Amino acid sequence: MRHPYGSVLARIGHPPIPAGPAHPPALAWLGHPVTVVATIVLLINDHVLKALWPGLVTGKLSDVAGLLVAPPLLALVRVPALGATIATGTGFVLVKTTATGAALASQAWTLFAGPSRVLADPTDLVALPALGLAWLVSRRCRADHAGRPRGGGGQRQRRHRRTGRPGGLAATRLLGRGFLRGHGDPAPLAGHRSDDGVPRRPLRRPARSHGRPVRGTP
Questions:
Q1: How far from chain centre, in Å, is Cα 20?
Q2: Is 164 inside any structural domain?
Q3: 55 assigned to some structural domain
Q4: Considering the domain boundaries, does residue 205 fall inside one?
Q5: 40, 125, 127, 140 — which has fewest CB within 10 A?
Q6: In the chain, how many domains are there?
Q7: Rounded CA gap, 102 and 119, in Å?
């Protein structure tokens, strides 16, 4: 998001105003196309496809989609990406291999989606490789977030590289002009002629005493 007066301030030499804060990696992970598609598939599969075609395919599809969505949801509550991925995998194994884990999952799912029943089924562990894809997505989001310029510095550097004019060139020119104004224009060269053709003698600048008397002919 660019500041509305950013271009005007840049022309008058004002330092750039930092843009709004970038999205943290957790939000970028949740909004990644892989996570968004998995969320849509999970909702459609659980509310539509399972009722129309109950069986092995729809059951495993929910497991894969759930493993892609759960880690970024945990990351939103300040859980590190690696910890969220490991916690999701550990919970999934406990739910699918133990009756206690399945019962706890049923109670938790009932609070969010209404009356539900989760069954322990060790064959559902074939969906665990989906966590690898979720981890790769999280790494990509963190890399993009770390490489994003902040405070407009990257944009200013790209502009300088494109134009080939560093930002301090204008200030150098202004200092040079002030120096010339303080010391006067350079004296004309010998033999210089005016517009009417009359030769002009070079003008001599008066010596500066700097507080001491100047010796010379009267």
A1: 10
A2: no
A3: yes
A4: no
A5: 40
A6: 1
A7: 6
- Beta bridge mates, 193: 199
For the segment 155-193, what is each residue's pLDDT rounded down to a tens digit?
544 544 454 444 455 555 655 555 555 555 555 445 555
- Report whether 16 contacts 6 (CB < 8 A): yes
What pLDDT score does 4 carry?
46
Contact 124/60 with Cβ under 8 angstroms?
Answer: yes
Nearest Cα residue to 70 out of 98, 103, 105: 105
How would residue 127 be classed by pLDDT, with cut points 50, 70 and 90?
A: very high
The distance of Cα 98 from the centroid of its chain, to the nearest Å, equals 43
Amino acid in the structure at residue 159: R
pLDDT in tens, 23-35: 588 999 999 999 9
Model confidence pLDDT, tens digit, residues 74-110: 999 999 999 999 999 999 999 999 999 999 998 988 8
pTM of this structure: 0.58
Nearest in space to 92 (alpha carbons), one of 144, 137, 128: 128
Domain range for 60: 25-146
What's the one-letter identity of residue 215?
R
Q: At which residue do the structure tokens 């008066």 appear?
A: 206
Percent composition of the chain: helix, strand, coil (DSSP 3-state, to 5) = 60, 0, 40
User: What does the block give as tokens for 82?
Assistant: 């690696």
* Spatial CB neighbours of 187, under 8 Å, sequence gap ≥ 6: 202, 203, 204, 205
